[in-house]
Amino acid sequence: MNTFTCAWQKIIEIIGGSEVPEDQRHAENTVEWLVRMKPNANLALLLAALGHDIDQATPERVHREAFDDYDAFKAAHAERSASLLVGIFSECGVEEAIAREACRLVRLHEIGGEPDADLLRDADSLSYFDVRLSSYYQRKGYEETLHRCLWELRRLSPGAHKHLDEIAYPDAQLQQLVRHALQIMEQETKPDTQPFTHMSA
To answer: Along the chain (201 residues), what's the average pLDDT of each consecutive run of 10 residues?
Structure first.
């Protein structure tokens, strides 16, 4: 077994044990979106895409309730995911340069800031709509899911927005929810309009 395969399998093993049923599908789907947008993605970017949310799959995961600010929560989550990956990469003997780059990208995956980090952020958000939205709605309800959709839409790059049209939602309620979020986004781009209140949980 090579070092990449070792790391890939260990990441899947941890995420597969998550209490959240869609976590593994989200990880794999984020890789799928990444490859769709960048077919020649390197090993570091692929590992980052698979493991970017590994923190959420562990009992000691970072909890939203511990933070007053949603972005601070997301930053702590990204940092812990990267820290967990450091241990996996070391155990599997992943080349130092690949391991370092993958962890750097995971630390940036919520905010982007440079081409590969932006791509990972976009793949993560597209996968939210593709595989997380339905379960999130069932757990959180309409209003909270609308807040989360807006957070995801605001961080999507203009080039990634077009891919939203490729996603098929399982029922009319979710279609309406996404349309509602997109309408709010459209209003925000008009002069003299106030942004929708930032998500509180």
So the answer is: 95 96 96 98 98 96 91 94 98 98 97 96 97 94 95 94 93 94 88 51 39
Minimal CA–CA distance to 158: which of 182, 190, 122, 131? 122
Number of H helices, E strands in the chain: 10, 0
What predicted TM-score, i.e. pTM, was given to this entire model?
0.91
* Half-sphere exposure at residue 70, Cβ-oriented, CA atoms within 13 angstroms: 13
Using CA atoms, how far residue 11 sits from 27, 44, 153, in Å, is 9, 14, 27
Note the Cα 135 to chain centre separation in Å. Answer: 15
CA distance 14 to 30: 16
Please provide residue 69's backbone torsions phi and psi, each rounded to the nearest 5 degrees.
-110, 130
Beta carbons within 8 Å of 13's beta carbon, 6+ residues apart: none
* Cα dihedral value 97, 32, 28, 31, nearest 10: 20
